[in-house]
Amino acid sequence: MYRLFAFTTLIFSTFLLSCAGPAPVPEPGMEVIHHGHGEEMQVATDVDWNNYTKIILQTAPVEFRENWRSDQERLHGRTIRDEDIKRIEDAVAGQLTKAMYRALSERGGYELTSESGVGVMHLMPNIVDLDVQAAGWVQNSILESLPDSRGSMTVELVVRDSVSDKLLAVAWQQQSDPRGGDMEMTISVSNASAFRLMSQNWADWLLKQLDKARSGG
Question: Does residue 180 sit in helix, strand or coil?
Fold first, then answer.
């Protein structure tokens, strides 16, 4: 598992550097099928995406943005415990998984499975740079700060063939609170709602890119 995370990190450290300019350079054997502000997807050039009809979806590991914990503790004047961190990580990762399941069930075209096999792709999302107004999520207090955003995150994705482990695609997309600018109490309900919407937007975006890959870009 650690080897997988390390390899995924290596892919994206190179991938994101190549995306820094206006004309991204695809990885060897890959082509860019989508590139926009805060999002990109590259797919293997020698793959017939119509052969893939099933998906194994891995639960996303979560990494907070640098200094998030100390910034939140200084802002809210309270200690964030390790169990609070774990609770937020589980909640955000769970929202992403639920959103993907929901999008697949509504759109069709793919079947979720837990078994490797021919025509099965392994989706490995990774949530990084997570920034969430923690105080309201961790505590159930009504009186909290009034930020104009409940948070943001970047979702990275590696897609591999479940049998051969061939790299099929890499993608990333930045997501921020779609209701940014709407001042609201930072309580657990509003935080959960914001990250549910972000997760839904990511799942919809990803399936659109997979549809594009199937149609040849």
Answer: coil
